[in-house]
Structures are given as structure tokens and as C-alpha cells.
Design goal:
Elements (H helix, E strand, L loop, with lengths): L2 H16 L14 H11 L3 H14 L4 H13 L3 H14 L3 H16 L4 H17 L3 H18 L2 H15 L7 H21 L3 H15 L10 H12 L3 H8 L7 H13 L3 H12 L6 H18 L1
Helix pairs in contact: 1-6, 2-3, 2-4, 3-4, 4-5, 5-6, 6-7, 7-8, 8-9, 9-10, 10-11, 10-12, 11-12, 12-13, 13-14, 14-15, 14-16, 15-16
Length: 311
């Protein structure tokens, strides 16, 4: 799954949680003030303060779905998984609609992603996948499969990752009256995924074949917003081929605000023996506050690296 998918699914989570709140006049939903305040604290790096705020809210409103999910998300960023799971479990129990339950299940899936647990992530993503099947939303159903696959490839379970990427590709293409651009998007994502899996398996020839196929799809011009993911792919392939100079050159062209990319750049600098630059990028990656696959991979690894390189 690429960054666009992560953003879409993260937006789904936020909106789904918001719908549990009372609606404002005119039918528009408002984000709770405590969520706004907590997010600001997180952007300032004050995770403990944000958690304290969410816990304070839960003291007076223990059945608040957004407060339970928000508290669990901060706990994952702090590396406190067992407690995070308890909050997400309560959110799943509290959910009063299938949509809210799916949002809570997706949050639980991402919680397990922070600890590299592909099996448990898939368990909960399967439930989200089933929800989208029930409402016949094949696009988001496919994206959910891709998200599960992304967690599994990052955790090293390449066979499971392949299965879920393939399922996402097949499901997405079943969308009724699918437009050519949407079809190209799914084909690009599938080639992107196969290239990364081949690289992780050490099959550079196979990886490059899929890189070429991905580039050919981009060259059609139907999905120009996906062009940013080509240097990420080329850098990823080069990294796993041990060509760290080429990897760095490509990764520096990718989205510099993506925690996963920041972590890959840090790892590349570390391989090149530039500890100062590695630390710079690990520090950036460690401050991610999203609850998505990129942060789930980057935050724990970056914090571990910062501890070992500065001790």
C-alpha cells in the first residue's frame, strides 16, 4: 500500500469516529475539542500530555469512542501495546454501527502493526474487509487488503503480503463500471507491490521487471499523483540490492514527509557509514504521530536505532 492509500484509510477512521458524536446544527459533525487539543499536543511532541488529556476525558465519559481510540493510538506511539489494545477492544465493544465497529477494528489492526504482528493485523483487517464487502465498497475493500499486505511485508511475512496484495488487486478491479484510470491505479499498485516483494526475496531481475511495468503504467498519464511513488520504489529496490548510493539518490526524491521514507533514508545513511545523517533522519521518523502502516514501521524502529546509536 502506498501513502495515498494510508491517507484515505486514516481519513476513514477519523470520519467514522466523528460520526458517533452528536451532530451540529445543519447536520454537520464537529470534531470534539479534546481531540483538537490532543492532536495539537501530539504535533508539539507532547505525547504524554495528549494521553493525559484523553484519559481525563475518559474519566467523565468512559464510553467515548473517539477518546478510547485516541488514547490507544498515543499508547502505540509510546510503545505500550498491551494497554493500547485494551482501549481499542473497548472501542470495538462500544461501536453502535457496523461502520464504527470497522473503524475500531481497523485501529486495532494498526495497533498490532506497531509491534510487527502480521497475523493479528490480518485478523482485524479481515473484519474491516468483510465490512466493506457488506456495503459493496470494492475500492475500499481492496485498499484494506493492501493495507494488511503493507504491514506484512514490513514485518517480513512475504507470502502473506503477496496473498493480500493479490487479493486487494483482484477485489479493486471488480468495481462496477471501473474507469480506466482506476484500473491503471490498481495495476500500478500491484506492480509496485510485486517489485518490493521480489526485492525482499533477493530476486533483482524479477523486481526490475515489475519496476519497468509500474513505470509503463505511470507513463500513460492516467494517475499523475502516483508518480511520487516511483522513486520510493526504485530506492527500495536498490536498498535491498545493497546499492546504497543509488538507494539514497532515489529515496531523496520521494516524499520527505513520509515517516517510512525518512526511516529508509536513515537506514541507507547508516549503511553508508554516515551516522550523523542517519541520526537526523531517525529523529524525524521517530516523531511521526499517525496511526498507519508508515508510522507503525518507522516509529518503533527509529526509536530503537536512536537508543542504540546514541548509547
Amino acid at each position: 500500500m502506498n501513502a495515498t492509500t494510508a491517507v484515505i484509510l486514516q481519513a476513514f477512521l477519523v470520519l467514522s469516529v466523528a460520526r458517533v458524536l452528536a451532530q451540529a446544527p445543519g447536520g454537520q459533525e464537529q470534531q470534539p475539542e479534546f481531540i483538537k487539543q490532543g492532536q495539537q499536543l501530539m504535533r508539539e511532541g507532547k505525547l504524554d500530555d495528549a494521553l493525559a488529556l484523553y484519559r481525563q476525558t475518559l474519566q467523565s465519559s468512559p464510553n467515548s469512542l473517539p477518546a478510547n481510540i485516541a488514547a490507544g493510538s498515543v499508547l502505540d506511539l509510546l510503545g505500550q501495546g498491551a494497554e493500547a489494545h485494551s482501549y481499542f477492544g473497548k472501542a470495538i465493544q462500544l461501536a453502535d454501527t457496523p461502520e464504527h465497529k470497522a473503524a475500531s477494528q481497523r485501529a486495532m489492526a494498526m495497533s498490532y502493526a506497531f509491534y510487527g504482528n502480521c497475523t493479528k493485523t490480518v485478523q482485524y483487517e479481515q473484519q474491516v474487509f468483510n465490512y466493506y464487502a457488506s456495503v459493496k465498497d470494492l475500492f475500499r475493500q481492496g485498499e484494506t487488503a493492501d493495507e494488511a499486505a503493507r504491514v506484512c511485508i514490513d514485518s517480513g511475512d512475504l507470502d502473506t503480503a503477496y496473498h493480500w496484495y493479490e487479493l486487494g488487486h483482484e477485489t479493486g478491479l471488480k468495481e462496477p463500471d471501473i474507469k480506466p484510470a482506476r484500473r491503471d491505479l490498481w495495476e500500478f499498485r500491484w506492480e509496485h507491490a510485486q517489485a518490493r516483494i521480489a526485492a525482499r526475496r533477493g530476486d533483482q531481475a524479477e523486481a526490475q521487471k515489475h519496476v519497468a511495468a509500474a513505470k509503463a503504467i505511470l507513463d500513460k498519464g492516467t494517475n499523475p499523483e502516483q508518480a511520487q511513488f516511483l522513486p520510493y520504489l526504485q530506492g527500495y529496490i536498490a536498498f535491498y540490492a545493497g546499492d546504497y548510493k543509488a538507494a539514497l539518490q532515489e529515496l531523496l526524491k520521494a516524499n520527505q514527509n513520509d515517516a517510512f521514507i525518512q526511516c529508509m533514508i536513515a537506514q541507507t545513511y547508516e549503511k553508508l557509514g554516515d551516522e550523523e545523517k542517519a541520526l537526523e533522519y531517525y529523529r524525524k521518523a521517530s516523531t511521526a504521530i499517525a496511526h498507519n502502516p508508515a508510522a507503525a514501521y518507522a516509529v518503533p524502529l527509529a526509536k530503537k536505532k536512536l537508543s542504540s546509536l546514541t548509547s
